Amino acid sequence: MANEVSNATLVSNGGRISKVLSPFVHTLLYDPVGLRSLMTFRPEGVMGSATANVTKLTRGSAAAAASSETSGGASNTALTTANYDLTVARYLLKFQATDLFALTGGPIDVDTIMSILEEAVELTYTDLLTALFANIAGNVGTSGARLTVDDIFDALYYLNMQNNGAAAVAVLAPRQINHLRESLRGETGAMQWRTDVSGMIGAGVGGVGFQGRLLDASFYQSDSVALANANADRQGCMFTQGAFAYRFGSVAGILNTMINPADVLMATPEMFIERVRDGANGMSSPYLNFYPAVAEQEDLRGVKITTSASA
Amino acid sequence: MSSPQQRRSIRPTGEKYLPAEQVEETILPAQYRNEPFVFVHYPGCWEWDREQKRMIPTLSAITGMRGVNGVGEDGKMHRALGSSVEKGGTHILPNDQRLGEWMGFITRYKAAGDPGQPNGWCYVFRSAGFEILPGGRANPVDGSKEFKEFRRYLLDHGIVPPIPVAVFNELRANADKALDGAIRVAQDNPHRAAKVDERRQVLAEMDAWWEREMNGEPEPSAAPETPAPRRRVRASPEPAPEVDLTPSAV
Fold first, then answer.
1. Sign of the CA dihedral B212, B217, B219, B220?
2. Over 80: is that where the pLDDT of A220 sits?
3. Is the model's pLDDT at B227 over the cut of 60?
């Protein structure tokens, strides 16, 4: 036998090619969660500085009883204020693609790069938010010990002691969420009958981002929650609205005066993607630029949850 | 499964401790990349250490990350440090001469950048390490034992003030509450009865320690005043952090 028309022969002689790129792309696992909405937006316009100074006001003065019906007068009441800073800094992300990359096309193309750049804004805000947790003074949990429901109660009690309102939010590391679910499985008494407990145990396991509500608090998972205590622990945080704030530098001034509009691939008030061309080498670089700032607005609105990073 | 020999560890050992001398080609995944930091102790932040059987201060951290808490493009941390002073914080700077053996307590490892980003660093307390498994996965190595010694040193050398009475009372009340909780849980879960004994012992140890503290008595098994020499002494943090850590910046 000879001269069979086989795939192998054709591959050898150019009638077939060994592989064809599938039009489908499998995206590897990552944590795409943006947690910016958990911060308070401070849109104040700032001129002449990268730093916006935000005033904090102490309210809540009850009246004092008069010391006498006819004398004694009254003492002045001080108006107590403080402040914090929101200083913007440049964050950027750049890709450099060749003309041949665009010309050959395929499932990964220029649009893919653009979507990665756009997504980077939210991922950066998540990193910035979680970077604030380590400086919160209040702390619950035990270093080296797994997170339990007791720690969640302790965090809620702490926030309650500081006059926080309801609707707390907790941002925890995946390991901490696992430990919490493990603890919930062993709860007895009133806790075991609550629907939010069964919901927290059953729903969202393996998912990223929002994990459920428990005891009127919303739980989020983020792999940006940092290690602490020389890698022994993860340090999440429970907080109420107003604990953290953010602003961004408006890029309108840059777009109007510094950049050729034809080079702007995408722009919003807070970010822009600019194309820089290297004609000599046949390459184009889309640059993402934006200027975020985050800060701890009020320490007593948050409490760290420090528990074991180990299984 | 990989054998221990196959694993590449970048846990600092011996003379390889200094990051500048880190000859491993290993690099941590991007998720570990961070910025230099300064420790800060707040008056209410203490915990019971079961190994040392005493209260030790817990430390918060102020990051030098640009755009966070007033840290600007230049990386200077004076605004962030200033706001922590308002909260009653005591800063522990790596270049504080009083730290002695512990000076330059921060080390750093190479960490990959996000896609499209240059590589960066992972800054950690010097006893913290990472083990890289084949395939590039990094496992953090717990360095908390030495970190606790460091925190005890801070207390013993007056770098952080002693625990306020009210804070101890609150922590003691929490331990008491934890004992109650353990008893409640053990009633329905007999297999968790051991937790009750553990909590009860912690409470007894806390009371005994406080009694000694109040009476100025020495501890039964006093730990050495300075940590055992296990690392070479460095005159200053190396490499120098890229932020302004001088006390004058506060």
1. negative
2. yes
3. no
| Total number of domains constituting chain A | 2
Contact A135 B80 (CB under 8 A): yes
pLDDT-derived band at B249 (thresholds 50, 70, 90) equals very low
Domain that holds residue A265: 89-125+250-290
Half-sphere exposure of B100 (CA within 13 A, CB side): 13
Alpha carbons within 13 A on the beta-carbon side of A256: 5
Query: Is position A286 within any domain?
Result: yes
Where residue A175 sits, what CATH number does that domain have?
Answer: 3.30.2320
Interface contact flag, B34 A138, Cβ < 8 Å: no
Contact A50 B115 (CB under 8 A): no
Residues of chain B neighbouring A132 (CB-CB closer than 8 A):
68-69
A204 shares its domain with A146: yes
* Closest A-chain CA to B127: A230
Whether the pLDDT of residue B228 is over 50: the answer is: no
In a domain? residue A112: yes
CA-closest candidate to residue A137, choices B84, B56, B171, B151: B84
Nearest to A137 among B42, B69, B117 (CB): B42
Q: Which residues of A279-297 are buried (b: 16+ CB within 10 A; e: fewer)?
A: eeeeebebbbbbbbbbbbb
pLDDT on residue B247: 42
Res B25: pLDDT: 58
**Which of B67, B84, B117 faces A93 most closely, judged by CB atoms?**
B117
pTM for the model stands at: 0.86
State whether A294 and B42 contact (CB < 8 Å): no
Same domain, A186 and A121: no
With a cut of 60, say whether residue B23 has pLDDT above it: no
Q: Please answer yes or no on whether B68 and A294 come within 8 Å at the CB atom.
A: yes
